Amino acid sequence: MGGLSESTVFAASPCPIECLEIARCISNVSSSELKVIKGRKSGEFRDLLGYAVDEEVAHRQHIVFTFMNGHEALKSFCLAKHAKFKLAGRTEPPFTQEADSRTGE
């Protein structure tokens, strides 16, 4: 879909998804460390940074969802994302909840 950003909400009043806070977390790494390791495998972190850091940027127990005031905008985004997914000819849902391989949850 030429030129459209993945972060654009296709709803009645389009706005970038960046304007909608969904969650906050306590991070295991600093923002400068994150810039270095972003997109890399956790096994590479030590070599990239020169010292050991946690394998997870943020553990799920340290994440708090905050989108209660913006839930309609989030719902619109998810519905629009699903519609865009169907337009692309895909049949599986765009958002799937995979079980955590360590806990099975």
TrEMBL record:
GO terms for molecular function: glutamate 5-kinase activity; RNA binding. It comes from Toxoplasma gondii ARI. Gene3D superfamilies: PUA domain (2.30.130.10). Keywords: Kinase, Transferase. It is an enzyme of class 2 (transferase). The lineage of its organism: Eukaryota, Sar, Alveolata, Apicomplexa, Conoidasida. The keyword Transferase applies. Its EC number is 2.7.2.11. InterPro entries: PUA_sf (IPR036974). This is Glutamate 5-kinase domain-containing protein.
